[in-house]
Fold:
Amino acid sequence: MRRHQPNRILPSEITPEATYLNRRDLLAGAVASGILSATALPALPVVAAEAPAGHFNFTRNAKYSVSLEPTSYKDITHYNNFYEFGTGKEDPAANAGTLRPRPWSVAVEGECETKGTFGFDDLIKGLPLEERVYRFRCVEAWSMVVPWLGFQLSGLIQKLKPTSKAKYVQFVTLMDPKQMPGEATDVLNWPYVEGLRMDEAMNPLTLMAIGLYGRALPNQDGAPLRLVVPWKYGFKGIKSIVKIAFVENQPRNTWNIAAPNEYGFYANVNPHVDHPRWSQATERPIGKGLFAKNQPTLMFNGYENEVGYLYKGMDLRRNF
Ligand SMILES: Nc1nc2c(c(=O)[nH]1)N[C@H]1C(S)=C(S)[C@@H](COP(=O)(O)O)O[C@H]1N2
Ligand SMILES: [Mo]
Structure:
């Protein structure tokens, strides 16, 4: 299998589309190819040779995928925000080698029946893995298109059986300055925390990602487990999660703690509500070159039909 010699495959050996589809079929086996025809898949760029190997069984979820060309693996893994490894966009790729994503465990706490600490494999056991190509929009007004590999958060929540008191889910990143040297600085309040309202967490679009481009998540993208909420700004997508807690009251989130007038709890992508220091009307697509035009920001990042109902009657200027 290729996974034994991941560095031996040169991108020039095969055509870009074939590279990704072949590997994907290798990994996904008959399941994926039986359900989806290759023509339903947009052409994907070459997976970088340094992509870590994985052996996941997954299917492409066409219903929840946008038909946009994904950003390159190189850009998705070298233009990051992960302040535990530095504040520069290229710092996480350079510095995240100190993170050890295996073995990994996740504590489940609070208002739920299934409490305890679970090993990564136990936690995700039985949850169907899917590939979903999602728009990704950072609050800094840049955007990407990412082929995530993961499972619907709702499936995990059902396994954990929250009680009727659970109104929100809180997520916490690993706290270990040895593995995450940025945590020895005070650029943010550590550990990084985030939260979702229960109905947001249960929405079928909300994903827990364990990979991208069919491979295990690279450390800089939040290995081994990170949240992906495609209609919200990227900062809701908390990385390297070690705790999930069901709570009654709205939990704090790291960027809101850092600058409450700039970052709220909801963080819904909204072209009509500007950040106090810059416009949110447009966004810069990453990887399209220096002369690429900014593109208009879409309400709820383009997922308005799917999630608009969650915020009916709410003042989105106040709840930003
Ligand atoms: N633990 C942790 N999670 C985090 C961050 C962080 O600094 N630490 N940055 C957030 C921000 S601001 C963004 S835009 C996304 C970036 O995800 P990416 O680097 O995979 O594109 O991760 C989010 N999750
Ligand atoms: Mo961000």
Q: What stands out?
A: Residues 80-84, 138, 173, 192, 221-222, 234-235, 237-240 surround MTE (ligand 1) (CB under 6 Å). The domain at 11-311 is CATH 3.90.420.10 (Sulfite Oxidase; Chain A, domain 2). Residues 284 and 290 are 10 Å apart (CA to CA). The first helix runs from residue 16 to 35.
